[in-house]
Write a structure and sequence with these properties.
Elements (H helix, E strand, L loop, with lengths): L1 E10 L3 H12 L4 E4 L16 E2 L13 H11 L6 H20 L10 E7 L2 E7 L20 E2 L5 H15 L4 E2 L2 E8 L4 E8 L5 E11 L20 H8 L5 E2 L4 E8 L9 H4 L3 E3 L7 H4 L9 H16 L9 E4 L5 H7 L1 H11 L8 E10 L2 E3 L12 E3 L4 E2 L11 H23 L6 H20 L6 H15 L3 E2 L1 H17 L14 H25 L8 E2 L7 H4 L1 E6 L9 E6 L25 H15 L5 H8 L15 H13 L15
Parallel strand pairs: 1-2, 1-10, 2-7, 10-17, 16-18, 19-20
Antiparallel strand pairs: 3-6, 4-5, 8-9, 9-10, 11-16, 11-21, 12-15, 13-14, 14-15, 21-22
Amino acid sequence: MKLIYTDCLVVGAGLAGLRVAIAAKERGHDTLVLSLIPAKRSHSAAAQGGMQASLGNTVKGLGDNEDVHFQDTVKGSDWGCDQTVARMFAHCAPKAVRELANWGVPWTRVTKGPREVVVNAERITIEEAEAAHGLINARDFGGTKKWRTCYTADGTGHSLLYAVDNKAISLGIPVHERVEALSIIHDGERCHGVVARCLITGELRAYIGKSTTIATGGYGRIYEVSTNAIICEGIGQALALETGVATLGNMEAVQFHPTAIVPVGILTTEGCRGDGGLLRDKDGYRFMPDYEPEKKELASRDVVSRRMTEHMRKGKGVDSPYGPHLWLDITLLGRKHIETNLREVKEICENFLGIDPAKDWIPVRPTQHYSMGGIRTTPTGQSPQLKGLFAVGEAACWDMHGFNRLGGNSLAETVVGGMIIGKYVADFCDDNDLVLDTGLAKRYVDKVRAEIDELIEGKGTENPWELKYAMQRVMMDYVGIFRNGPELDEAVKQLKALLARSVNLGVSCKKRHANPELVEALRVRRMLKVALTVACGAAARTESRGAHAREDFPQRNDKDWLCRTLASWPDANALEPKLSYEPLDVMQMELPPGYRGYGADNAIAHPDTAKREAEIAELLAALGPNASREARQQALMPFELPESLTPANERLADRLNGLVNTETTGSPSMPNIAGDDNS
């Protein structure tokens, strides 16, 4: 048995995993990252449109702050998120953007003076302040009150991943590439590392760490068509599930992005609509104002996806060999804008569709895109059940997104969550010793080796590719944008049958080293368990909340369902997860449940909502009208952060106000607004 030990072990080399590794390394801890692929090939690179942070630099972002970002995030989540986590995130996002600028991210910058933008299908001119010249720019995104999505054209994820990976390289953080974790090593109370297999040699290794952080991304590839990279198969979530101890949270919360191209499902960024693009039907008619007259194309993602699906169900979709679709029209933005700010979209359209989006409409329809569910953690990123097991990014249910994620909040969560949780991981490594229980590690290595032996030497006849495709079809057909009881019951039935069949998996290629068929066989049984947690959670939740839309239960039911779904796997022979629920305490919320702003307000109220609203009114009245924004927030819902992240964020408006104040008192100095701090 090959044993490798470290202080901070990170599984996954995307933005979230690398950011945790950097935080631990900067505190002096030995750090090691495992990755299926080279770090710069991680799915984080696919993020196009940008990351949200309330900088308030642009004229369309003036007045933005942590409060507005927090409120947008909570409403976007359909009140399913952990509001403490949403507060932590909104406070730290500006710090992360500025840190990334110092690490080399070439953020698109504000240019002073007039510029043309498209808003609600009209070309208008806005005037950017001279004081904002050179500061980080922002574009509009769905579900936000202010323009706050910071970007580098439409290659933001690519820029961020390269900068963060280069930072990790500069710190000497090793990344073991082409290595796949297959089991978590634990004693029922504490996680001690993982068993991983080298995809090239087939060697099994026990990686032992003081802390283990799962940062393996989402589980989109349990669906047949997804915008996710093919490596996003939910294996990190499955490993936690298979411990029988750690729980997964809100696995039924699966987001469909409105504008993936047909038929391949590659994403066209929300930046297309944020910059002024329109959705049209088969007649060329712009239909979104009929459904959402206020936000139109920039309603929240789950809302736009449902409206598009409803419109196609009315026969307004464009017929194609791949089923109906709608059109995304960005021609009105003009060729210069497209080739400057949406150049990746242009290349995707040219290479995969053979069209020029500066003059042709883009065929799109909603496609599986993001997993709000994941490994359930506390606000510090640690599993409540398994000490030493952390999760971050899309692999985690931290739970910042609740039942729907706003565009731009995912890319932000990777680096903001990684920055915050990385400090808590470093704290854990400070306070806990490395436990080298070689007997425990050997038991888990032997268990994985026995699984591989059975696949290669056993008499199983089930084809892993066939089981995987059948699972993906079930999820696509029955656990999609719109859900109902009979279809969800059918999904659970068929998935359980597939999981039962997976006991008899076999492989035709008997090689133990580089063997794609063996890799698939090792993954598919774990993927089926993840798919079952999604389907079972969706079948049990008899309400509609965010991206979970039940046609047979169309109301959001705060009275009975204002809770987080928790899923655990009872034992190795079980065919479905055990579900339990974690209530969300309305009396601790800064923003009690209310009207989200889309469609009819048909929510069933929680009995504590009115009581909490009255309590909030009393608390604010007691503070008086002159209380600061920060004092009001702390009175309603105090939250904690690592000390280095607690200072207030400075914005352009604050600096200009400071200038006015210093001029009034006769101080001669003027702050450098345009300049060198990369703000």
